[in-house]
Amino acid sequence: MTELEEYRYSELAKFQSINRISFHDVNLLNCAFIHKSYRNETLHVAQDNERLEFLGDSILNFLVTDLLYREYSGLSEGKLSKIKSFITSGEFLFQKARRMNIGEYLLLGKGEEATGGRDKMSLLSNAYEAFIGALYLDGGIRKAKAFIKKQFLKEIKTLGAGPIVFDYKAALQEYIQNKASQPPRYNVEKVTGPEHDKEYHVSITIGGKTFGPEKGHTRKQAEKRLAKRVLDELLLIKDV
Hints:
Helix content: 55-70%
CATH topology of the largest domain: Ribonuclease iii, N-terminal Endonuclease Domain, Chain A
Structural class: mainly alpha
CATH class of the largest domain: Mainly Alpha
CATH architecture of the largest domain: Orthogonal Bundle
Order of helices and strands: HHHHHHHHHEEEH
Shape: globular
Number of strands: 3
CATH superfamily of the largest domain: Ribonuclease III domain
Strand order of the largest sheet: 1-2-3
């Protein structure tokens, strides 16, 4: 094992310890965190995490569906589908990946590193799915199922008891809390339209930069739409 490999395995041991997860084959865990940009720039790396992501996506969908079916015998197919879509969405998986601090352990190419790849929603959510694929290969369906239950059961129970709403404003607040000295400030730039059909035009200022405006029939609706739009821009949600 080279010095670089020893350092890498030490880092992955730290990841496992922090997240209370143990791999028999640490190479699987390592592969889950290799982005294609790193493989393209590194001659000795033969595989990235795309195949594991493909597998993990299927495992995640199956196990979330199984968990929903067993937890909620009384819910309609439509409600179950909505919960599943929310639980397996890129935004939701991104938040899970951040809580596990997956971004710190990714191997990225120079371009991705320079453009904030460790905080990209698409990149982190994909790595999270690749991690699930690696977990399944390492310990079988029981190990993957135990992880999914631990990660998602609380949210599934909450979503099953009420309406499904993703809080984009809260997500934006969480994203920028360590990146800007001031919290985001929403501003109503103007209100147009007749009294019975007003439109609020709202902008937001983050770290001295202004985004927007975005409009909605209520200020809350406009702010929510704007928060989602800003997240899309800041997190560079795109195919990578």
